[in-house]
Each structure stands twice: as C-alpha cells, then as structure tokens.
Amino acid sequence: MAKVLYITANPFDETKSYSMAVGKEFIDAYKEVNKNDEVIHIDLYEEHIPHIDADVFQGWGKLQSGQGFEELSNEEKAKVSRLSELSEQFVNADKYVFVTPLWNLLFPPIMKTYLDSVAVAGKAFKHTDQGPVGLLTEKKALHIQASGGIYSYGPAADLEMAHRYLKVLMNFFGVPSFEGLFVEGHDATPEKAEEIKSNAIARAKEFASKF
Questions:
Q1: For position 106, which CATH number holds?
Q2: pTM
C-alpha cells in the first residue's frame, strides 16, 4: 500500500479552477485503480503552514545548541512542532501530486511556504563533502499545472518558473520520477477552453492508471 499526498494550492474548487478540475479527475481515477492506497489531501489554503520566520530560526537555534524543547517560547514551540509534522508527513509518503495554477509565472505563494517546510536537511536531503544529496530516492511525483497561456513549450517557455522550480527541487530531494501534466492556453484561446480542459482530463485519467 502506497501513501499519496495530494497537495493543492488553489483557493477555488474544481467548478472554478482548471487545475483543480483536472486534479480531481486524476485523483479519483487513481483511487479507482489503487483502492488500497492511502490518499491524503493537503489543501494548502486550509492547512496551517507556518512561515519560516524569526521564531522558527530562534527555536531551531535553541534546539541545535542543546537546549530542550521546553525552553522554547510558546510561539517557537508551536511553529517548530508544526513544521516538524509537515516534514515528517512528506518524507513518509511514497508519491506526491502537486496541483497548482500558474500565477505571474510561478505557483501561488502558499506552495513556496509549504515547500520550505519540507525542504529539511537530514530528512529530504543531506549535506556532504561532495555537495547536497537527496534522500527521497524511492518516491515519485506529478505536477498538474493550469495556465491561461502556453508556457510548457514555445516562445514563453523560458518565462515559466513553477514547474521548473518543482523539477529542480524534486531532483534536489533525490526523487527519481517527476512528470508534468499541463492544462494551458484556455485564456489565450477561450473558444477552445472546454476542449483544452476535456483533453487534459483524458490525459489525467490515462496517467492515473500508471502513476
């Protein structure tokens, strides 16, 4: 049985969002094929994801210096504990499905906050004399991304930074399998919007059968 984190970063549901519509079809199809797998939905707009701020750095610093957890302030305890929960949940999963829109060439800020919470040395990667080494070498990941224009290829491809960031980060973590499923061009060609979504849903269902 595999544990799958279905991580969504969109304030809207599948009735208003192209990425969420395709993501829902994907995960529903995946569940149908993999009935014994555990799928955990992490809605980043509903979860408490602490920013890495002064409280977090101070709390980490105290722990690294040998102080006990009880010596942290209440704010430090709450934030450090929550970040630890998130990172443990991430490294203990087997598969990751990231679902995001493309906003201003990147994913929503809450996704970066979440990724910062799981990019923990000693858990997702480690430092060595030869440089950083990823520790999540038996995982796999998928990124479902919707954008009004076309950014996965063509003249605007160099402007896209969301999927490229995730690709670099998954490689940094040592994740050997990372793929993208793009829903794009519905604002550039609104007359084809429904066709674009329908085609993406068909590809998502097909992908779910082998993910």
A1: 3.40.50.360
A2: 0.96
